[in-house]
Amino acid sequence: MTFEIKSSPDFAIIDCNLEDGESIVAESGAMVSMSPNIEMKTEARGGIFAAAKRKLLGGESIFQNTFTAKGGKGHLMLAPGCPGDVISFELDEGRSLFIQSSAYVAATPGVILDTKWGGVKGFFSGTGMFLLKATGPGTVFVASYGAVYPKKVDGEYIVDTDHIVAFQDSVEYSITKVGGIKSLFLGGEGLVAKFNGSGMVYAQTRSPGQLAGFLHPFRRVKNNN
Fold it and tell me: What is the C-alpha to C-alpha distance for residues 71 and 23, in angstroms, rounded to an integer?
């Protein structure tokens, strides 16, 4: 498989070329266009119970679509639901990438998806209590809201939980508050993720929570009178 990520970082789209017999697995609704010799198969990867676990805990769709080129080379275009960037990761066998809920877009068939416990504080931080865990070998595609800001961590680094996209398995994280109680409730920052170790952390330049807060005053309110 060869691919190119186009229209990055505002409205990124994955332009894939599959050899005869090659496949890629994508989230439900990610397909934009495809050549007529691409065969699509919808299934619950790993079985219905494993897929339901990923849906309930990690925010992934229960059913995913596997696209396979049949009878020659095939062309496929995939895109995430929100405007922003898409980045690809090449995972060696046994190495993992932890992904924020809803950021996963697609992966080659060899990538195994599971969930990771993120701690109770994750529920209150906006990240959720679980993250998706993608384990190689293979290629995985992850989407962001806004552009992606990569940061090489060597020691300790802090990221607002609403801006986390993904991070390597060589770094650990914990959810904590930044500053004191006044900062937590009045400073607009809330809880943060404190990363430790050596590896890459990927943040997004825009926050879905801040967008929701910006739009809230403009939403239509139903008048029952």
Answer: 13
Six-digit token pair at 91? Answer: 């995972």
Q: Which two tokens stand for residue 82?
A: 């929100």
Dihedral Cα 161, 126, 134, 12, nearest 10 deg: -80
pLDDT tens-digit map of 76-121: 999 998 899 999 999 999 999 999 878 999 999 999 988 765 544 4
Question: Could you tell me the sign of the dihedral formed by the alpha carbons of 87, 90, 94, 95, in that order?
Answer: negative
Encoded tokens for 107: 């992966």
Map out the domains of the chain with their CATH numbers.
2-205 (3.60.160.10)
* 13-24 pLDDT tens trace: 999 999 999 999
The phi, psi pair for 91, rounded to 5°, reads -100, 125
pTM of the entire structure? 0.80
